[in-house]
Amino acid sequence: MTFHAIIEQATLRDALNATNAIVEECKLNTTPDGIQITAVDPANVAMVDLSINESAFESYAADGGTLGVNLERLLDVVGMGDSGDLVQLELDQETRKLDIEISGLSYTLALIDPDSIRQEPDIPDLDLYATLVFEASTLSRGLTAADLCSDHVQLSADPAAEAFHIAAEGDTDDVDLEVDSDELLSAQVNGDCESLFSLDYLTDMERPIGSDTEVSLRLGSEMPIKLRYSLAEGGVSVTNMLAPRIDSE
Amino acid sequence: MTFHAIIEQATLRDALNATNAIVEECKLNTTPDGIQITAVDPANVAMVDLSINESAFESYAADGGTLGVNLERLLDVVGMGDSGDLVQLELDQETRKLDIEISGLSYTLALIDPDSIRQEPDIPDLDLYATLVFEASTLSRGLTAADLCSDHVQLSADPAAEAFHIAAEGDTDDVDLEVDSDELLSAQVNGDCESLFSLDYLTDMERPIGSDTEVSLRLGSEMPIKLRYSLAEGGVSVTNMLAPRIDSE
Amino acid sequence: MTFHAIIEQATLRDALNATNAIVEECKLNTTPDGIQITAVDPANVAMVDLSINESAFESYAADGGTLGVNLERLLDVVGMGDSGDLVQLELDQETRKLDIEISGLSYTLALIDPDSIRQEPDIPDLDLYATLVFEASTLSRGLTAADLCSDHVQLSADPAAEAFHIAAEGDTDDVDLEVDSDELLSAQVNGDCESLFSLDYLTDMERPIGSDTEVSLRLGSEMPIKLRYSLAEGGVSVTNMLAPRIDSE
Asked: Of the four, A141, B203, C42, C155, which is 20 to 30 A from C131 by CA?
């Protein structure tokens, strides 16, 4: 197996952070077309499906194979460089370790046996009938508001209003953020949608996204959500999925 | 009882912070002329007497009545907006909850039974014979210095010098900040004044005051102090009182 | 014994911080030529030899004698001023306390009996055959990298390459920062040099140094290092020494 790649620090960092929001260890599937990552959290609630396209790299060569990595360790090494720096990743065929070069630093990272990493999930096909596009900062603001009174957050949209709501009901207080056409970059709502989510999971998922990044949220009724966005001018595409909580009320 | 008010975020926030420095819960007395708050800390050492004049509001309508609020909870909600944003507060007559609108967010805050909140203190009439006016940053600096060697701080002024001293005596070290005419915006000292205060209480009281806010300190001899300042171009006036410690030396 | 000195806040602060990186209490030897400090940490691993030349003071008068000081306490007082402020230090002959004046603040600092302070070390004469000059930020960067995988850091240089390496070997990973001619301001390497150091000690030593300060590192083979730099345009000179760890491999 050969693997040699050069990529801008910010692109790699953001892709790894998006993955690290879900899992601590993951498999990097290196194909001739780029790197593909799919992972699910230990509780089977949150998922990430991410690909770094060949076009996102300055230089890329791989003939296929899987690298098991500790994401936090890899992110610490990548963090030694600045946004614009180039990171070089190369698999050492003999030692089966990953050689990383960044801003004059040479780091040899031990890999993890991919078989010891939680199996990759199947991405389910979902019947979601709302698609809402807005900046990540809008979601961030709604989650902060929900956190004022609850551990859960309700996402809802209805076709009549074409507005989107991020809301929460606490024991005594409740809160509602209406995301209207001022903030919605696009909205397609083909039926009433309303689902409840764990605030912790959704907050972890949202945190690594740059506040002005356009995100596309697909929503159903008591269904998982899909949250999609891309990084590095489309070179990296990320799809997050989060399973709903059952409203106990 | 009706209550409906619209006010700039910074004005409400600063007024609530000044109150929260003394107590966690308080009664908002809503009169046709504005909101009035009087509160004393559980140990009966520190007091706040604050009014938000009708003129400080963009819009104000109240026919009298008392709202019991958890200050930290209310401040968290207000904190969802920026300084210049408008906050709308409206009492829901049916649910007896406070509806808060801020920057697209709707929050319903449960109120506290005013009878369960510590009774409002009487503001004592005091014979204080020094009045010193300076910027809050001067007091802040003196308190930081006192904290280097003690848990208490001595405030003193004498008519001859017309200077003001913030001083502390520790077990081995001592410190003295002389606030002279360079920093005193005005000084009227009609007798020797010297009182000792708990550093913790005075620091809590000073913390919410903007560093360039003009404060007027009235001081006596082994007497409480009165610290007065206004916010929002006079729309909010705050008077703090703090009881002295007995110097055990 | 008389001692009276006026010095810029930043100069005194930086000199005290360099000392405080090694010890909590120290003796200030006040001579007519300036203040001299020598100290060794409790484990006898790290040393500092520092002098504040008379020229670094705005005003200086001393007839010789030793002041024992708690460095953290003195630094807290000095920290009440800004970089450009003048600090006045004067020994009160009667109370044997140090009177400190800074930005309107008068602080009386109790001194420590010099006999109760750990004895000053002898500075050993060492046969070190490499001298490398670079900015402190380079060392800082290498130590941060070493910390990614180990508790120790290896410093090495060889005469052929005239490059300098900051490296670390962890249980599974290893890292190497090559400091080449781009970053080396000067390099004299008269033989292979390689020594291993405790990362904690070297990081403490490096932390107080301004990132663009030129440091001169003298290195041997399984020998202590000497790290030299000056502050306040040469008015303060600092020499740090650190004993090597024995490589257990």
From this structure: C42
